[in-house]
Amino acid sequence: MSSRKLEDGLKDLTLLGNQKTSYPTKYAPEVLEAVDNLHVNRDYFVKFNCPEFTSLCPLTQQPDFATIYISYIPDKKLVESKSLKLYLFSFRNHGDFHEDCVNIIMNDLIELLDPRYIEVWGKFTPRGGISIDPWCNYGRPGTKYEEMANYRLMNHDLYPEKVDNR
């Protein structure tokens, strides 16, 4: 077993290891970076839990807080985690509804990675006595991942898990 080398997608990274990180003050999908997946011969999930997500209500500009869960089955690329952190941070001053935020995140990751399968779930803290937990997914069309996406969509909330971030 050998370790990852620069030619395995590391040479193009600009954020990881950069001690002068600049935090975006507006929505910034351009900060997302990817590295090569060295295990394209198998299916596996990559999961991110982001408990400090914030965005703004597009009408009132009041902050909304959430835990964002991202799970995907990669194909040729993996998202680099520091770039993902900065990307999610870029929503801090972005005004959109909860449903829009999770769909935007998923769309941007699909564009960057072309994953076999991806799902994004936002568990937002209550405001006005109600919480909103949008969930979206995508499976590559014409493949078993499209079937998986349809199945998971129809069954994703049959047994709601305990929500412990509120």
From TrEMBL:
The active site is at residues 57, 64. Gene3D superfamilies: 3.30.1130.10. One of its GO terms (biological process) is tRNA queuosine(34) biosynthetic process. GO terms for molecular function: preQ1 synthase activity. It catalyses: 7-aminomethyl-7-carbaguanine + 2 NADP(+) = 7-cyano-7-carbaguanine + 2 NADPH + 3 H(+). Belongs to the GTP cyclohydrolase I family. QueF type 1 subfamily. This is NADPH-dependent 7-cyano-7-deazaguanine reductase. It comes from Ureibacillus thermosphaericus.
